[in-house]
Design a protein that fits this description.
mainly alpha; flat
C-alpha cells in the first residue's frame, strides 16, 4: 500500500531546493484559489472593451473581493467572540 508521503513533488531542475519549491508551489496554489473565487463570484468574462477599462474592471473586482473577505472575517470574529462570551 502506498502512502501519500511516498509521492513527493520534486523540481527536476534542482532536486536540492525542495523546500523552496514547496514554498513557491504553496504561493501559486493560493493565487489559483483566489482567482477561482473571484471568477465564481463575478463571472469569468470582462465586459469592457478598451484596455484601460478592462484593467479598471479587474481592479474593481479585486477590491470588491477583498472587501467581501474583510466583511466575512469581521462577521466570523464577532461570532467567535459571542460564543466565548456567552
Amino acid at each position: 500500500m502506498c502512502r501519500r508521503s511516498d509521492f513527493v513533488i520534486r523540481d527536476p531542475r534542482n532536486p536540492y531546493k525542495h523546500d523552496e519549491f514547496l514554498a513557491h508551489h504553496h504561493q501559486r496554489s493560493n493565487v489559483e484559489s483566489t482567482f477561482s473565487a473571484i471568477k465564481r463570484k463575478f463571472g469569468d468574462s470582462i465586459r469592457s472593451r478598451t484596455p484601460a477599462a478592462m484593467a479598471n474592471e479587474v481592479l474593481c473586482e479585486l477590491v470588491c473581493h477583498n472587501l467581501c473577505c474583510v466583511i466575512l472575517s469581521q462577521c466570523e470574529l464577532v461570532l467567535r467572540q459571542t460564543r466565548t462570551d456567552g
